[in-house]
Design a protein that fits this description.
The structure holds two protein chains of two kinds. Chain A is of the alpha/beta class. Chain A has helices at 45-64, 67-83, 85-96, 100-120, 124-128, 160-171, 186-196, 212-221, 236-246, 271-274, and strands at residues 26-30, 36-41, 130-131, 138-146, 149-153, 175-179, 205-208, 227-229, 252-254, 277-285. The radius of gyration of chain A is 20 Å and the shape is globular. In chain B, helix 10 (237-254) links the parallel strand 6 and strand 7 (259-261). In chain B, helix 3 (57-70) crosses helix 11 (269-282) and helix 4 (82-93) packs parallel to helix 5 (115-122). Classes of the chains: A alpha/beta, B alpha/beta. Chain A: Residues 22-253 form the Aldehyde dehydrogenase domain.
Amino acid sequence: MSRIDVRKTYKLYIGGAFPRSESGRSYVVNDAKGKLLANAAQASRKDARDAVVAARAAFGGWSGRTAYNRAQVVYRIAEVLEGRREQFEAEIRASEGVSAAKAKTAVDAAVDRLVWYAGWADKITQVVGNANPVAGPYFNLSTPEPSGVIAVVAPRDPLLGLVSVVAPLIITGNTVVVIASEDHPLTAITLGEVMATSDLPGGVVNVLTGSQAEIAPWLASHMDVNGIDLTGVEDAELATELEVAAADNLKRVRRPSPGATDDWLAEPGLDRMTQFLETKTVWHPIGV
Amino acid sequence: MTPTASPTASDTSALGVFDDVVRSESSLRRFLHGLPGVDQVGCEARAAGLATRSIKTTSKAFAIDLAIRMVDLTTLEGQDTPGKVRALASKAIRPDPADPTCPATAAVCVYPDMVATAKQTLGDSGVNVAAVATAFPSGRAAMDIKLADTRDAVEAGADEIDMVIDRGAFLSGRYLQVFEEIAQVKEACGDAHLKVIFETGELQTYDNVRRASWLAMMAGGHFIKTSTGKVQPAATLPVTLIMLEAVRDFREQTGQMVGVKPAGGIKTTKDAIKYLVMVNEICGGDWLDPDWFRFGASTLLNDLLMQRTKMTTGRYSGPDYFTLD
C-alpha cells in the first residue's frame, strides 16, 4: 500500500511562532532545475510590522541576559543544527543543486560559525570596550551595548550566509528581523525551527520570506528599527533607496561596497558584530 | 423613532415614562426580568462578525481622528501624582505635539482628589475633566460617603462623574436600591454629566448587562460604561453590543439618547475601529460623536497616534516618539 506524502507547509517565523502571511499569499519556490520545490509564504508589510513589534518586545529580555547565557543559547543552536544536518544538506542540495560534498561543507561551516560567534559573546566587550585615561580621579569606562532591533536582508547563500549575518547580531544582544533570500527561503524557515527549539526566546530572530523589494523599504523607513544590514541587496538602486529611507531616524546602515562579494567560508572579522553596537561611557570617581 | 435634534442632558426619570416601573421593588423587578433574554451565542457571533470589517484609507483616517476625539485619557493609579496628572492633561489637549492637526481627546479621567490639578492645566481648552466617584472601584461604602465623594469632585470642577453601581445589591436582586443610588448621585452631580459603571466583568451574565443598562438609563444616567478597568474581563465587544442595543431601544421608547463608554482592555487602533463599526451598525451615525460614545483608555491613545503618523508620513512609527503615560 502506498503511503500519502506528508508535505511541509513553509510559513513565517515571527515572535517564536510560525504564522502564515497576514496577506494569505504564497509564492512558488523552484529547485535548481526549475522544478517546483514548495510554496513559501509571501510576507507583506504588515508581517514586517508584526515582526518588528515582536523583536522590540524581545529586546529587553534578550539584551538583559548575561553574555555567558547568550553564548550558551547560540551554542545550543549549533548543537541542534548539527543534529538535523541531514535535513539541511538535503535542502541545500535541492535548492542550490550543489554536490553532496559541497552541501556537507556548507553545513559544517554554518555550525562552526555559530560556535565561533558564541565564543565572542563574553569577549567582545574586552576587545572593543576600554578603560580610558582621563585627567582626573575617575574611572572612565567605555562598554559596547546592542543597538536594538536590526533589520537584515539575508544574502543568497541559504544557510551559511544566513547564519553569518544573524549570529553576530544576536550574540551581542540585538534582536533581528531577517528577510530570507527570495530564491532560497526554505532553509531559513527550517533554521527557524532549529532556533525555536534552542532556548532562543521568541522574537529574538524573526524570519520573513517573500519579495525583498516589497518588504525591505518598510523596514528601512520603520521608525522603531535601529539598524539595517543590506548584505543581501543585489540591486544597487534598491540599496541606495533603502539607505536614504533609513536616514530618517538615523539608523545604522551596513551596505557592502559595490561589486564586493562575501566569501562565506572565510573566517569573519569582528565588523559584523561591531557595526551594530553603541558605545556607552561612564565616569566613576576613584577613591573611598 | 424620532431622532432628537439636539439631545441634551437626558432627564428621563422626570419624563414619567417609567413612573409605573420604578414605583416598587416588585414592579421594577418584573420589568427588568421581562426584558428579552440575550442570545449569548448569537450576540458573540454578531460581535465577532462585525469585527471582521476592513476599514482602510480615508475611512481609517476618519475613524482614527474620531477615536482620538472619543478618548477619555485615564489614569487611576494609587501612585498618581500631580505631576503625572498635569502631563496627562497636557497630552489630552495636544496628543501629538508634532502635528497641530491632531484633535484633542474628549476628557481626562482621574480620581476626585486630582480634579483640581487636571482642571488647572486644562483650563478652557474644551477638554473635560471626568472624576471617578462613589467609592470607586468597588462601590462599597455608605451612601452618604458616596454622595460626599461625588459633591467633592463636582465642587473641584469635574465636568463628568463616573460612578460605580453597587454590584452586591444588583446581584442579590435589590434593583430599587441600585436605582435610587444612581438617582441620588445624579442629583448630587448637578450640572455634571453622569456615567454609570456596571463592571460587567462582575455581572456574570449578558442578561444582567441588559438589565443594568435599562436600570441606569431609567435612573437618568447620561452614559453607561462597561468597566472600571480594575477587573478582568473589562470591556468586550459582545457586552458593548448589548449596551448599544439598549441605548438604541431606549431612544425608540423615550426619544432620549444615552451615551456608551467601553473602558479597559482596548489597547489598539484595530480594537477601537471594531467598536466604531459596531456603534455605526447597531445605533447608527448619531452615536458616532464624542458626546455619545467614549473610550476609557490610557495606552490606546499612543497606538492611535502611531497609526495616525503612519497614515500621514507613510512610514511605520515607533513608541519612542510618543510620551509614555
